[in-house]
Write a structure and sequence with these properties.
The protein is an alpha+beta fold and about 130 residues long. Helices cover about 25% and strands about 15% of the residues. It has three helices and three strands, in the order αββαβα. The chain has a three-stranded antiparallel beta sheet. It is elongated, with a radius of gyration of 17 Å.
């Protein structure tokens, strides 16, 4: 018997609530894979013999200081709201080790990064008292 490999989209469809960012509108600024740097390492937790051999944990990062594909006001909100996720060198780091396969973790980390960018996409509304 041959089993069909599930895609990241099929897995994401099963996730609900806080495990997945559910966007109700299209994003203005999409994460560009060519501007990201990726590192892989061994994932922690259960996995049997596979966990000792395969680098499935994905770490995706981009430098907020030198970013040229996002507007400056969005980058300022990103620095202010996610200052604990930005390293001393200015890299925004997102890690995923949810899945047992590397390409699923890459997609998950990029989805998390897209959710972060979407959360700071719109400027906060300023109310002026009457």
């Amino acid at each position: 018997f041959f089993f069909k490999q599930k895609t990241a989209y099929e897995i994401a469809q099963r996730l609900v609530g806080s495990e997945m960012c559910i966007r109700d509108r299209a994003s203005k600024y999409l994460v560009r894979r060519d501007k990201l740097s990726m590192k892989f390492s061994r994932s922690s937790g259960a996995g049997g013999q596979n966990v000792n051999k395969v680098n499935s944990k994905a770490e995706v990062r981009f430098n907020v200081e030198t970013c040229d594909w996002l507007p400056l006001d969005l980058l300022e909100r990103l620095k202010r709201n996610y200052k604990n996720d930005i390293t001393n060198t200015g890299d925004l780091v997102v890690v995923s080790q949810k899945h047992r396969e590397q390409h699923f973790n890459i997609d998950d980390a990029i989805e998390k990064m897209q959710c972060i960018i979407d959360s700071v996409e719109d400027a906060p509304i300023v109310y002026i008292p009457k």
